[in-house]
Specification:
Chorismate_II_sf, five-stranded mixed β-sheet, about 20% strand, Alpha-Beta Plaits, about 300 residues, alpha+beta, EC 5.4.99.5, chorismate mutase activity
């Protein structure tokens, strides 16, 4: 394959010539006023154009992969692509279908750039989080399902899996505590589902995605902070300190071990934060500097949670 990248306008030039009259575009009046055969011929012509552009896109992705610079999996970039397409979307095709099409496309092109594999904590044996993972990362992406979050996180730490899909943090699902102490660090990089309007039969659970690479900003994000505080600190006091530091808390999960003097706290805040954000130094009740456990692109189609 040539190393040069030709303009998009030339994307159909390498396609095999169509049979006479088969791929010629009828005028707008021809297909609008034609019978079923004419309409099907127009659909076939459009499918050929879509396929040409898909092959063209894959060629560009190959050049990206050979550049060796950006990470293959960039969830923030993927989210911004889908948001941009939805903003320009018109017509009768449901927005959810557009999201599904591009999720499969992005999964395929990510795999081209070095592979993508999943480790899913799904105690329900495929009933919920496995379905969420398939929805977001592609129906044929390699996947291992485990009964515990520790097993899924171990796969990521050992390089067996690209990402782990884990239950949304709660007082019961406390896997997030390991992100505050684990070396090398793992990071929250996405929240599932990305499309929040759930049809009948779709899994209703929420999940987070964890990887060894830090998240990238999408332009509309939320972040997680991990804190260590005195065990007797109140949620009200901690929320007040966060607001005073210009950090708006959305969700707070507090883990207090019986008899322990220290509580671990996971807080979701608005915006994309990094470890060197100066606001993190303004929290007076923490026992050590807060850790940015990761961030995710805000979901589409309705409020998360």
């Amino acid at each position: 394959m040539s190393n040069s990248v030709s303009p998009i306008a030339d994307s159909t030039s390498a396609a095999a010539p169509a049979a006479p009259g088969q791929d010629e575009r009828p005028s707008q009046d021809d297909w609008r006023s034609g019978g079923l055969a004419v309409l099907r011929a127009e659909l076939d012509r459009i499918d050929n154009q879509i396929h040409d552009l898909l092959m063209r896109r894959a060629e560009v992705v190959e050049h990206v992969a050979r550049s060796g610079k950006p990470a293959a999996f960039r969830p923030g970039r993927e989210a911004s692509i889908i948001r941009r397409l939805l903003q320009r979307h018109r017509g009768a095709l449901p927005p959810a279908s557009l999201v599904r099409i591009w999720r499969e496309l992005l999964a395929g092109t990510t795999s081209m750039q070095g592979g993508l594999s999943l480790a899913v904590c799904d105690p329900d044996h495929g009933a919920t989080l496995t379905q969420l993972a398939r929805e977001h990362f592609g129906s044929l992406t390699p996947l291992r399902a485990y009964g515990t979050a520790a097993q899924a996180l171990a796969d990521v730490s050992q390089g067996v899996a690209s990402v782990a899909v884990l239950p949304f943090p709660s007082d019961r699902d406390t896997w997030w505590v390991s992100l505050l102490h684990r070396e090398p660090r793992l990071h929250i990089i996405a929240r599932l589902p990305f499309w929040n309007r759930r049809p009948d039969g779709a899994p209703m659970a929420q999940a987070l995605v964890v990887a060894s690479t830090p998240p990238d900003a999408s332009g509309n994000d939320r972040s997680f902070l991990g804190l260590e505080c005195d065990s007797d600190i109140s949620r009200t006091r901690l929320s007040g300190e966060l607001l005073a530091a210009d950090l708006k808390p959305e969700i707070m999960v507090v883990l207090r071990q019986h008899g322990a003097s220290v509580s671990n706290v996971l807080i979701e805040v608005e915006g994309y934060l990094t470890d060197n954000d100066p606001r993190l130094g303004r929290l007076g009740s923490v026992l050590r500097r807060p850790i940015v456990a990761g961030s995710y692109a805000s979901p589409l189609g309705g409020a998360a949670g």
